[in-house]
Structures are given as structure tokens and as C-alpha cells.
Amino acid sequence: MKKVNLAVVGATGMVGRTFLKVLEERQLPIENFYVMASARSAGSTLTFNGKEYVVEELTEHSFDKPIDIALFSAGGSTSAKFAPIAAEHGCIVIDNSAQWRMDPEVPLVVPEVNPEDIEWNKGIIANPNCSTIQAMVALKPLDDKYKIKRVVYSTYQAVSGAGVAGWNDLENGLKGEAPKKFPHPIANNCLPHIDVFMDNRYTKEEMKMIWETRKILHHDDLKVTATTVRVPVFDSHSESINVEFENPFDLDELIDVLRNAPGIVIEDDPENNVYPLALNAAGHDEVYVGRIRRDESVENGVNLWVVADNIRKGAATNAVQIAQEIISKMQ
Ligand code: A2P
User: Fold this and answer.
1) Are residues 103 and 252 part of one domain?
2) Residue 331's pLDDT is what?
3) Torsion sign across C-alpha atoms 116, 117, 122, 124
4) Which of 11, 142, 275, 298 is most buried by a 10 A CB count?
5) How many A from CA of 84 to the centre of ligand 1?
6) Does the annotation count 284 as an active-site position?
7) How far apart, in whole angstroms, are the C-alpha atoms of residue 329 and residue 331?
8) d(CA 12, CA 55)
9) Do 199 and 213 have their domain in common?
10) What is the pLDDT, as a whole number, of residue 66?
11) CATH code of residue 50
12) What DSSP assignment string belongs to 277-325?
């Protein structure tokens, strides 16, 4: 297999560190490896595959050296400025921020769902929002089989999705300290407020789920609504997903469709208290689906409970899977 030169931008962050872990686990064929972050952490070191790497400050010249693939997770403004510079130098950027996701020139990819979209990239590929990724893994096989008419998302999102600062707010909040990242205490609380509020009274996180679902499923006018909530959980997002289909379905068959789809583990044995749990999903790459039951209030509806590690499948793992797809096509 061809070896690549690979850079991680934002390597010191929550997702950045997980990039390193997942790259190690999946043993990507890497020739030269670079870790980049802001001037604040330049000169510090990170261990990768048993070797120490010095963190470089990200600058306009970081991509003067030959880099084939760069995994970015350093915020939207950093991606806005530096992803095009990297792409101009022939590097393929896989960007975890929201900056490029809805750009019509940029594919938005979940490898189990729309790997074919990788092919038309022009140097930047966007990693979807964490909540969208896990929902897409569950919904794509159902859309293929029964054609989705409408989706209602209600999310229960972990604080790690808000980076180190979000994690600290819960950890310190449990000791009685005031929040620094969130507008209210997150310990013993649920905040129906993720990202900024928009003119239509939705939050941007909710609109990201709506826009990104339509783009990834290639259904521009799909009916989707969402309420996204931050809950006092460190790792893994949980989602209630209500789906209405155009076509009738048999529930056992629908469960089999999900069971046979890539990236999904069914945990659905309510009599034995078996259903997906954030605590169990943390540290894993799969999307866990359970509480599968007919929505008896509509003709062809189903309710799902979908849980995944938001930092792994919701961010780092998904990006590394995209990198693996790219590398496999390089031969
Ligand atoms: P640094 O550690 O030097 O601040 P998180 O969202 O988990 O807090 O992580 C954010 C990541 O993005 C960190 O690695 C951070 O680096 C990096 N980052 C933030 N701003 C910049 C910037 N202007 N240039 C490069 N990296 C940045």
C-alpha cells in the first residue's frame, strides 16, 4: 500500500488527540507525520506510534512541504483560512469544522453512507456534524429500503462535543464551580441550546442536522426538524429519531435491514434492559441502535434510539475512515 505524508491540524485538541489514537489503531500507512496547532502549543510534544513528535505552529507555510492528507479539527476560522492553502498545495483536507460543510463544491461524507462523494472533491472534504454522522449511519439503509418522508431528531449530547472547555465545565460544575463555556451550569441540567440561535429560533446545531441530512442523503427537500440538547454526559451522543416513510414496512424486516447495514450494532432487548447507552458506546467506533418500535401515531413510522461516541465516530473515526478510502484509491 502506498505510504502517505499526513498532518493533523489541531492535534492538541479533544478531537485532534483522538485522530492520533484512531490513526494508530487503524495502522494507516504513513511515511511522514506532522502535528500542528496554534502558537500556544508549538514546541510541545505528542506521542504517535511510540515516537515523539514536536507540535508545529500552523502557518501559511505549513503546507510548503509535501503533505498528501491533512485532518483538520481546529475550529471554523482556522479551516476557513488554512484549508484552501493546503488544498492549493495539492493536499486533501478532511475538515471537521462546520466551515465547508454546506459549500456545494465540497463533499460532505460518511463513508458507510456516501463514499462515492469523495471522488468529486477539489481538495477539501467535510466531516459532518457529530450528531448528523450517527443519524446518517442509521437512516441511510432505511431510506434506501423504505424512502424517508420526514425525520424528527431530539438529541442528548455529551459535553465533549464542546471541546476541552465543555468537558471542564461538567467536571468543575460537579464540584460546584460556575460554568465558563456554557451559558448555564451543565451539571444536573439539560441545556436546549447548542451553538448560536438563528433568526428562525432554531439553534445552529439544529439547522446543521437539518441541512446536512439533506445533503448527505441527496434529498434537497426532505422534511427534517430537530431539537438539540446538551446533557451532563462526558462522552457519546444519544438521539431519539422519529422517522416516517413513504412505503410500508415490516418491523422485523426493518430491524434486519439495520442489523445488516455497515457500522451498526443492534442492542434491542428491552425485557433484559438492553438498549444503547452512552457509557457503553464511549470508546467504540460503531453506531448503536435500539428501542426500535413502530410509531403508532402515523401510517409508516418508526422510533429509534441511536447512540455513538461523538469524538470517535462523530468526528475522528469518520475522518480517518475518509482518509482510508482516499488512500485505498491511490494505488
Ligand atoms: P492549541 O492547543 O494550540 O490551542 P478543542 O476544540 O478540543 O479545544 O481543540 C482545538 C484545537 O485547535 C487545539 O489543538 C488548538 O490548538 C487548535 N487551534 C485553535 N486555534 C488555532 C489556530 N489559530 N491555529 C492552529 N490551531 C488552532
Assistant:
1) no
2) 67
3) negative
4) 11
5) 18
6) no
7) 6
8) 8
9) yes
10) 98
11) 3.40.50.720
12) -HHHHTT--SEEEEEEEEETTSSSEEEEEEEE-TTIIIIIHHHHHHHHH
| Residue 47: predicted pLDDT | 98
Please give the distance, rounded to the nearest whole angstrom, from the Cα atom of residue 37 to the centre of ligand 1. Answer: 5
**235: which residues sit within 8 A by CB, 6+ positions away?**
158, 160, 278, 281, 282, 283, 309, 310, 311
- Domain assignment of residue 51, given as a range: 4-127+315-329
Distance CA 292, CA 330 (A): 40
Provide the 8-state DSSP code for 129.
P
Domains in the chain: how many in total?
A: 2
Q: How far is the CA of 185 from the centre of ligand 1 (A)?
A: 24
The verdict on 276 and 143 lying in the same domain is yes
Cell digits of residue 99: 466551515
**Dihedral through CA 77, CA 217, CA 111, CA 323, nearest 10?**
-30
Low-confidence spans in the chain with pLDDT less than 70: 331
Q: For the full predicted model, state whether its pTM sits above 0.90.
A: yes
C-alpha to C-alpha distance for 107 and 99, rounded to whole angstroms: 12
Q: Which residue has a Cα nearest atom 15 of ligand 1?
A: 10
Rounded Cα gap, residues 10 and 19, in angstroms: 10
| Options 91, 218, 237, 284, the catalytic residue | 237
Q: Could you tell which of 78, 127, 234 is best to mutate to test the pocket of ligand 1, judged by most ligand atoms within 8 Å of the CB?
A: 78
